[in-house]
């Protein structure tokens, strides 16, 4: 047994002797333990990517402006209540756990120098400034990789580093519209409330953050094999176009220009919401057998036997007549009785929950999605955790979303910056360190 394995075994024995469940250190630290992320991003797409890396065990240094910090700290109400009253907005809390807040103004020469020194110690940089904006501070990929060739540098922008739109700023709402997403989201023109509508969450930001995290992990694997770092160019528009999925392929393969269908599916019928006697239910029949089971529980044998509806091609073609018949039958049921009947017959379906209902759902509780954390001042923070459950190296919850500059002194100490130097920088407004 080599030294590393012996150390792990010894740690497990120590915990066992203390009455704790013996878990390997990798499970306590996360699979990315030992990696350092310098996070220059703010708002959502970049912070979402860096939070994923933090959840998986990476050390994340979040660089923020000393005066106000990340923009989303002020995106409220609601605001978290701390010992001294309202503090950070809920929006900030959703994407900034497992990070150390380091408040440095890198628009100043002294601040930029500090951040460049931190970059020399980092494995990964995540930034979401306008294309070319960080070059003026020597914080672009070319400058930082010259001193750290193994650096993985991920740029998240609205439109990418190239192309005619590269210089534009990109926001989730704009990307939802430009990408075609809003053209297929909303009620069709012949229904009340018709018109394009954005998704109720900033999905273009979130998709981009997920793609960025995936690309970073791929670059890490490449670096392990070759020692080479690289520049990753992630764009909100690219990411949203990539997840047009079946709607995009409907156009490429069939020449179709998809439109708004409300809650109906462009390719599968019946697959939509229906009104019940006391609310609404979702019905999602993915195959012919499920459709026949639905007809059976609704006592509609003639519908199941109708040649027009035997397969999805016919159901899609004559969807209006079919859905009208199904809707009239479903309206006779209460939602609870219909859910139970669908489950008994193997017909996929479910409710349309409010946010408060799903967060209190027993399935969410059983999966442990809500995690209680605590700030250094004792303020409790409940967060929605990392969703994938790794059997040997699960996500960890080590640092609650920090107050602005809470870790500045700790991180700068790694550079040998002592209290006297910090005081001078603090007096100039270059840093904020919680004092």
**Terminal residue distance:** 47 Å
Q: Provide the domain count.
A: 2
Average pLDDT, all residues: 92
Radius of gyration, in angstroms, nearest whole number: 26 Å
Strand order across the largest sheet: 8-7-6-1-2-5-14
Major beta sheet summary:
7 strands, mixed
Number of strands: 14
CATH topology of the largest domain: Rossmann fold
CATH class wording of the largest domain = Alpha Beta
The rough form would be described as elongated
Description:
The protein is an alpha/beta fold and 435 residues long. The protein folds into two domains: 285 residues, 3-Layer(aba) Sandwich (Rossmann fold), CATH 3.40.50; 84 residues, formyl-coa transferase, domain 3, CATH 3.30.1540. Helix content is 40%, strand content 15%. The chain is built from 19 helices and 14 strands. Strands 8-7-6-1-2-5-14 form a seven-stranded mixed beta sheet, sandwiched between helices. Strand 12 and strand 13 form a beta hairpin. Helix 3 crosses helix 8 and helix 8 packs across helix 9. The protein is elongated, with a radius of gyration of 26 Å. The two termini are 47 Å apart.
